[in-house]
Automatic annotation (TrEMBL):
Highest taxon in the source lineage: Bacteria
One Pfam family in the UniProt entry: NUDIX
Family stated for the protein in its record: Belongs to the Nudix hydrolase family.
UniProt keyword list: Hydrolase
Gene Ontology MF terms in the entry: hydrolase activity
Name of the protein described by the UniProt record: NUDIX hydrolase
Cofactor(s) required, per the database record: Mg(2+)
Domain named Nudix hydrolase: residues: 4-135
Stored InterPro entries: Nudix_hydrolase, NUDIX_hydrolase-like_dom_sf, NUDIX_hydrolase_CS, NUDIX_hydrolase_dom
Amino acid sequence: MSQTPKIGALAVVLHQDQVLLVQRSKEPDLGLWGFPGGHVEWGETVLQAAQRELREETTVIAIPSRYLDNLDLLRWDQEGQVVSHYLLVGVACDYQAGEPTAGDDALDARWFPLDQIRQGDLPMSARVVDLLEHALRADQAPTRPLRRT
């Protein structure tokens, strides 16, 4: 049987100098804080998956606006064999409405001040700070109009 990486979408939502995170209720990363997200379903785009997972895990509504970055997440057992392989795609989402309430696959969901995340004193999944900083840089970059050919 051939194995292939699983694709996951992460919704990065910034609002009023805060970022939305969820506390994971399942492995991997049980109990750690990270961006809402999950598997991309068959026939679904990564942007659609980010929006759906965000709503399922937090009840917050946001519109996916752009891809941010790809994160390879590989985990090995004690013998050095790969036990899980994910390609996680960070998606910037523009907040529309809702207050976070933990839903599917989340123990908790809440807004955190950006400075608190940057300090790193919250138990977080790998690369949360990196992806947050990427999103903040992308927010400040000038937008270019789409060129029509």
